[in-house]
Structures are given as C-alpha cells and as structure tokens.
Amino acid sequence: MQANPASIGRVHLVGAGPGDPDLLTLRAARLLMNAALIVHDGLVDPAILAMAKPSARLISVAKSRARHTMRQEEINALLVREALAGHDVVRLKGGDPFVFGRGGEEAEACHAAGVPVDVVPGISSALGASAAAQIPLTHRDHASIVTFVAGQCKGLTDQDWSGLAGKGRTLVIFMGIATAGQIAEKLMADGLAPDVPVAVIENATRSAMRVLRGPLAGLADLIADAKVQSPALIVIGHVTAEPDNTIRALALEATK
C-alpha cells in the first residue's frame, strides 16, 4: 500500500556552510529554526545546531574516516522513512549539499521513493575557507582555473592528476588530511614541482581557525607537525603564497 502523497513529508537538503552561523543563507536559517526534525552531519558547528528550537528532534549521522554512525544507505533509508511517515526533514550538511556532500545520492533515494526534495545551497567549504584565509582561488596574475578533488577517492594512486595544479591553476582538496602524503607524492609524480606553495586551512571561519603554509614536498610533515584535524582543506597553487604584509594589514583594517 502506497502512502497518500498529501501525507508525505518533504526532505530539505540544507547547506550549513563552512562553520560560522553568520554564513548561513536566510532560507537555511529559517528552515533550521522552524524544523521539527534535523538530521545532521558531525562537522556542523554546534552553534548552528543551537539555533534549532528546543522541541526539535536532532539525529546525528556523523562520519569520520575510521567510523560511521550510519552508512550512507542507512541515511538514505532514514530520510525516506521519516518523510513517508509524514515528517518534514531538514537534512543539514556541512558546506554545500552537492559539493562532496553526497546530497545527490540522498536526493536520488528520495525521488525513487516518491518523496519530494528541495535543495538549499550553502557556502562550500572551498569558498568559505579560502575567503576566511584571504586566499583568492582565482587571480589575474596567478590562476584562472580552479579544480576541486576528493582526497579520499578510491584508487587514488591509479588516477592521473597531471594538469590539475601548476601554472595558472589552483587545486582544492577536500577530505585530504589523512592522505596528504600520498596526494603530494602523486602530484609530484605527475609532474608538479616540489616547491609549489600549499596552504592547509583548519576550522575555517571558526574561532580556532589556523592557516598553515609550506611547499608541496613538505605537506605531510606540515600536517603532522601541527597535528591538523578535520575539518581542514588543502589548497595548492601560487595563490596560497603569503600575501604582502601591507596588503594584509589593509584588508584586516577594513574588516574592523
């Protein structure tokens, strides 16, 4: 027996942005504050979750490299089950739902079950982190091409990464902290110079944010020595070079 379409809830795939609650879209904030049920990732900042009303039911589906609270298939089933039971669901995801957020998989599962879905975009961590660190992903003098890649993809060493970074290009790596050594070796094996500058941005837009810089060849040591933890993003290219102190001082003054 199929559910009555009029009684089916809606799933909202909502981007929570890079961390700072002030960077939520107005629509995301409105849905979050009115939601009765929120299914959220582990990296969503607690200050954002605190915006939910006290009566809201919060379900964590946190994932890490070593441990998943729920497998993706179970998350998909949870969203469908709650919606078919007549509940509207806010599926709160770090960054943007459709940029390495598996939002596409969740939308497909909902559509297949006849559950209506809408998507509320968020500021991708690539854009939020680079802006917070004052690293321009594009620059007329340094880069006109930007590439996003996942650092935990299957068959990493078998892929051809030649041309992803280098002169005129910026490479942004999501989920690459644990595999940083392999990533650096892979890029250098595919032709990238060992002295290309890199930046690691940890806890972007949050009070504990750090920006670490060094050469590509030293990426793994940079991360290990500083004990970098997720959430963190790796940016590779000449746009990451330390900016002129005068320019930085003027930029900081303008934000006061």
UniProtKB/TrEMBL annotation:
Its EC number is 2.1.1.107. It is an enzyme of class 2 (transferase). It holds the Pfam family TP_methylase. InterPro entries: 4pyrrol_Mease, 4pyrrol_Methylase_sf, 4pyrrole_Mease_sub1, 4pyrrole_Mease_sub2, CobA/CysG_C, Siro_Cobalamin_biosynth, Uropor_MeTrfase_CS. One of its GO terms (molecular function) is uroporphyrin-III C-methyltransferase activity. Belongs to the precorrin methyltransferase family. This is uroporphyrinogen-III C-methyltransferase.
